[in-house]
Amino acid sequence: MEYSLVGNRIRQIRELKNIKQSYLAIQLEISTRAYSKIESGESHLTVSRLYRIAQVLNVDVADVVSARPINTEFISGSRYQESIVHQLNTISQELSWIRKRLECDQDSEAEGST
């Protein structure tokens, strides 16, 4: 694996997503300097670290190691945003269901104690 090419690719994706190195370092539980070495190709990446970087960047590992051009429409464009909006809507629906369930449980308890 050509570490400098992979590091450069990670940097490009990170910048397209407007993510700071410090954020990725925190997510990876490493120092910002150690993370910087990943992007510069000075540090050897393990498969698990590469996988975790892809997770944090919300891309496939193949997007990180591929030589093909970065699909900027997906990474920084509307498809990525639509994906996030869909995930947030799903979470919101689940929270509404939980809230209603809790209210029903509380009503049942109140009726049972009277």
From TrEMBL:
GO terms for molecular function: DNA binding. The keyword DNA-binding applies. Residues 10-64 form the HTH cro/C1-type domain. Keywords: DNA-binding. InterPro entries: Cro/C1-type_HTH, Lambda_DNA-bd_dom_sf. This is Helix-turn-helix transcriptional regulator. The lineage of its organism: Bacteria, Pseudomonadati, Bacteroidota, Flavobacteriia, Flavobacteriales.
